[in-house]
């Protein structure tokens, strides 16, 4: 399926649908948020070591659990449009865990809510872009009816 679209010089060139399944934008958008959160959780752990709000083994275990959940979420995000994988759900569980860290380090309430908002935006826009890409190719690559 091809469509003609003008390039910067105004010349027409065909746009072809990829042969295989279409790639989802969720891994790029959500994955970048999840990996950034792993870095923030690490630094929050270092802060916790200095402030000593809980025992060191409990702090390390908490940081490790959240890191594993966030990393698993990033790995298990859907790679293809329409693919069902548990990555988005695990990402939301990770968001809840980070907000819950606010009971140990109160500043994590704010950090967790900010990242939850960013993750929500990434999920929303990733799914919206995926829907629009599917619609674009379903309707013939942007061809308009005369």
How would you describe this protein?
It is a single chain. By secondary structure, the chain is mainly alpha-helical. 63% of the residues lie in helices and 7% in strands. It is built from 4 helices and 2 strands, in the order E-E-H-H-H-H. It has a two-stranded antiparallel ribbon with strand order 1-2. 22% of the residues are buried.
Question: What is the element layout, followed by pairings?
Answer:
Elements: E1 2-6, E2 12-16, H1 26-51, H2 56-75, H3 87-100, H4 107-138
Antiparallel strand pairs: 1-2
Helix pairs in contact: 1-2, 1-4, 2-3, 3-4
Going by helix content, strand content and strand pairing, the class is mainly alpha
DSSP E strands, number: 2
Estimated radius of gyration = 21 Å
Overall pLDDT metric: 88
| SSE string, helices as H and strands as E | EEHHHH
Q: Label the overall shape.
A: elongated
| Distance separating the two termini | 19 Å
β-strand amount: 5-15%
Largest sheet: 2 strands, antiparallel
């Amino acid at each position: 399926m091809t469509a003609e679209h003008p390039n910067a010089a105004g010349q027409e060139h065909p746009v072809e649908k990829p042969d295989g399944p279409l790639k989802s934008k969720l891994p790029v958008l959500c994955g970048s948020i999840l990996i950034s959160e792993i870095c923030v959780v690490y630094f929050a752990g270092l802060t916790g070591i200095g402030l000593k709000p809980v025992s060191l083994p409990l702090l390390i275990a908490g940081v490790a659990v959240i890191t594993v959940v966030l990393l698993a979420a990033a790995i298990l995000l859907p790679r293809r449009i329409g693919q069902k994988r548990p990555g988005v759900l695990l990402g939301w569980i990770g968001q809840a865990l980070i907000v819950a860290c606010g009971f140990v380090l109160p500043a994590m309430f704010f950090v967790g809510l900010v990242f939850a908002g960013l993750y929500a935006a990434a999920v929303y826009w990733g799914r919206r872009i995926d829907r629009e890409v599917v619609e674009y190719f379903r309707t013939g690559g942007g061809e308009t009816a005369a």
